[in-house]
Amino acid sequence: MSRIAYVNGRYVPHRAARVHIEDRGYQFADGCYEVVAIRNGVCVDAGLHLARFHRSLEALKIKPPMGDAALMTVMREVARRNLVREGYVYMQVTRGAAPRDFAFPAGIKPSLVMTARRKTLIDPRLIAEGIKVITVPDLRWNRPDIKSIALLPNALGKEQAKQAGAFEAWQVDRDGNVTEGTSSNAWIVTSTGEVVTRRADNAILNGVTRQGLIRVIAEAGLKFVERPFSVAEAKAAREALLTSSTNFVLAVVRIDDAPIADGKPGPLARRLGDAYSAYAASGGQDR
Ligand code: PDD
Q1: Is the CB of residue 56 below 6 angstroms from any atom belonging to ligand 1?
Q2: How far away, in angstroms, is 207 Cα from ligand 1 center?
Q3: Rounded distance from Cα 37 to ligand 1 centre (Å)
Q4: For the chain, is the Cβ count within 10 Å smaller at the N or the C terminus?
Q5: For the segment 208-246, what is each residue's pLDDT rounded down to a tens digit?
Q6: Contact residues for 190 (Cβ-Cβ < 8 A; gap 6+)
Q7: Is 147 tagged catalytic?
Q8: What is the pLDDT of residues 51-87, one digit of tens each?
Q9: Quick one: pLDDT band at residue 287, thresholds 50, 70, 90?
């Protein structure tokens, strides 16, 4: 089956999809994006993604390319045309194309691109075995809360993880605290059973899966705390997890050379993974 992309108002064959060489996304990483999970053919927590998208656009002073209802229509249509029942939609807006100039060119029109891809979001092997992470210094700018397409430090960290045989790299701030993964949020479970993740300040992206899991944790009546945790605390934790729209909830069973507890996925990771899957299956908070 040939894939279809949406590019500035047209649905085109993926291999023929093009943007201008002076698009500011290409030259300055001047844009933002969303990755929206599709489960059972439905966009998971589309409302939370759109809210975050607007927050990023506002921070970058880029005008929304179209209204939310139209964005939703294109998202669904891209998923439909690519026969994606399980996978994700990638949606990217840049400030647009103009002769290269650091300041914002006047009268520039934002570029909007969407693609969709099939992906197993709940991978039985990853759930059964858990995943390994390494730790790397957080080399990013001071606004990782903006879902910007400037992802070079994230790509470098992920490649380092891959070379080390790990699934993800947890980025660590100057105080020795974990900020987040290169493309996921980081969590631990303490010896007293508290589920801990960093507060969504400017140092991390406020993950949509993170927000959904917080809801799921509250509904399950579990203890939850938002605070920083150090690499040492994570290595000594009862359990560790990560969350993202492309993998939902995964147990972290090793951080660098330290196995987490007995080195197998723990009971809370399994329980939260199952509960989040049920939440996502019904569309998330828009249920
Ligand atoms: N990344 N932190 C970072 C730096 C991320 O890039 C992501 C998601 C997350 C998790 O956010 P969410 O739960 O909304 O997916 C946290 C996506 C999946 C990506 O760039 O492919």
Answers
A1: no
A2: 6
A3: 11
A4: N
A5: 999 999 999 999 999 999 999 999 999 999 999 999 999
A6: 196, 237, 238
A7: yes
A8: 999 999 999 999 999 999 999 999 999 999 999 999 9
A9: very low
Decide: 206 in ligand 1 pocket, CB within 6 A.
Answer: no
- Encoded tokens for 121: 């979001």
Q: Indicate which atom in ligand 1 lies nearest the CA of residue 245.
A: 15
Give φ, ψ of 240 to 5 degrees: -140, 150
Q: Which two tokens stand for residue 201?
A: 């300040």
Structure tokens that stand for 185 in this block? 């949020």
Amino acid at 186: A
Ligand 1 centroid–CA 143 distance in Å is 14
Could you report the per-residue pLDDT of 92-118, keeping only the tens digit for each? 999 999 999 999 999 999 999 999 999
Residue at token pair 């330290």: 258
Domains within the chain, CATH numbers bracketed = 4-118 (3.30.470.10), 124-286 (3.20.10.10)
Is residue 208 in contact with ligand 1, taking CB distance under 6 Å?
Answer: yes
